Amino acid sequence: MVHEIYPDKLDNSYKNKSITDSDRVMVFKDRCVLIRKIADKYALPEYKDIKENITSGLRYLFSIEGRETCGYFLAQAEHVGSTDGLVFLPLSEMRYIKGEGFKEIYFTVCTAYHLHKWYADNRFCGRCSGRMIHSDSERMLCCEACGNQVYPRINPAIIVGVTDGDRILLTRYAGRAYKGYALVAGFIEIGETPEQTVCREVSEETGLKVKNIRYYKSQPGGIDGNVLTGFFCELDGDDTITMDKTELAEANWYRRDEITVEDDGYSLTREMIIAFKNGAYALK
Known about the structure:
- By secondary structure, the chain is α+β, with helices and mostly antiparallel strands.
- Helix content is 18%, strand content 36%.
């Protein structure tokens, strides 16, 4: 995600910063983001382009070090879109758009959406129902009635490539818009380590047992508000799959030469599948 923009660096520390005309503004509506689109070129709108339409919610998000135009802000706006090249682009479509520089736009939008959802979901205190107010010194919301302090929520999750020699377990989700191949995944529950979650999720979704769990890589996922930790592991025992049909539409073993998935440059899932296909990762 946006942590992968080397040699530039995300500065996610909170600043009590005023917006300038050249800062970028994130406007979300119904899981869509406001984007300037001219021909096949995309850019996030600058404040000077839409400031007359800003109604409320102007809030500093983060910046990218070393950029002359580096500040990103969250805002609510009215009467924008479909004019002057400004359109509301569904988040679900963004990862399929190709083009120079768009990968960074997507990663930045996902990170901003994580904060947008956190602000939207915490307008009132979960302890006493009082109104939450923004801290001027850190990224924190505080209840003006009882003093309850709330910080951005991150949901830990795992994704796991289950291997058996030259084979890997690939799945397809049930009841989701995404119909491509995936790996077994799930959220970490209270009292679990990530490795225990790997064993539980694989068992619940496929009925398989695993061993030799190895860490691969992690990735923040802004749209879902999570941080995804990737593992590879080996099948332990019987390879018969007993699929949970409420979670999965398909679960099968595929040999390396049968894998048709292509790396999209965004997804940790696809990166792990391609790493196995190319023999770049193998348990020993």
